[in-house]
Amino acid sequence: MEKKNCVPVPESAEQAGAVTVSESAGENRGLLRALLFLALPTVAEEILATLLQYVDTAMVGQLGEQATASVSITTNVTWLVNSVPGAIGTAMLVLISKALGAGDERQVRKLSQQALFLAITAGALLSVASIGLCPYIPVWMGAEEAILI
Question: What is the pLDDT of residues 28-41, one digit of tens each?
Answer without folding.
Answer: 888 888 888 888 88
